[in-house]
Amino acid sequence: MSRARHLPSITNGQVRWHESLIQGGLGFCALISIITTATIIFILTRESVGFFQVIPVKDFLFGTSWVPMFEPSSFGVLPLLWGTLVITVGAALICIPIGLASAIYLSEYASAKQRSIIKPVLELLAGIPTVVYGYFALTFVTPALQYLFPDIQVFNALSGSIVVGIMVLPMVATLSDNALRAVPDSLRQGAYALGATSYEVTTQVVVPAGLSGIIASFLLAISRAIGETMAVTLAAGATPNLSFTFLESIQTMTAYIVQVSMGDTPAGGVAYQTMFAVAGLLFVITLLLNVIATFILKRYREVYQ
Prior knowledge:
The chain has 305 residues and is mainly α. The chain has helices spanning 2-5, 12-52, 57-62, 78-109, 112-124, 130-148, 157-181, 185-193, 198-209, 211-226, 230-236, 253-261, 270-300, and strands at 66-67, 74-75. A two-stranded antiparallel sheet has the order 1-2. Helix 2 crosses helix 13, helix 10 runs antiparallel to helix 13 (270-300) and helix 12 (253-261) runs antiparallel to helix 13. The relative contact order is 0.14. The model has no long low-confidence stretch (mean pLDDT 85). The chain crosses the membrane at residues 21-44, 80-105, 117-138, 158-180, 201-222, 270-297. One of its GO terms (cellular component) is plasma membrane.
């Protein structure tokens, strides 16, 4: 009691002052995010408008040849879009089934000891620099693929898809695991009480109950795969084409942005402005995926008490 008498008293004015300071700091952090996003949109829009004053939007979106730096030049972005789609689809075919299976095992079948070992190792993949994945593709994945496909090129879409799929695998596994573990045990117990097997409980109760979070993890992983740069640049190469095989070199939108950013293209010209036009299109695609993910979360989200 004697110690309590000597504790410093805090007046209501001091409490309000501290709260106002904290609120102001949080608001300033939010304002920085808004200003940064607005600045990015402004720069992309300004440079893209200058590009589209020279190159028609129709030729840019539907052209099938991308040769912006040589004569005769061509500015059809479809080869870059196709390369991005090939890498994204290939990565999704790898990370979605493996990531979901890993999440189901961790949340439903793994013991506490197994989970404490497997999950940190799985999440460790997310901490590896992307350039390391690129060199891993060149020195291990591609040589291994050459035993299966002798005609495969050194830079190829299949190798890029594999390393990007491995790279985004922890995102799918972790987010899906969190969604599955958020399902109340009462649903599992009720299913078991009705005579369901462990497989039926997992596939018909737990996974449908956590479906919104699972789908959101898929979309976020796809967005991450679309925006990947260094690993794709090193593994898939820089050849924009509409090839329908995974065994040839391609170029993604991000890889082209890196190519222009290296400084070989004079600033201010049309070839330089293509970087902003491609980046703007990539920004729109990623934004649409995030909007779809938000809609799915709101539409199918289950709230448990």
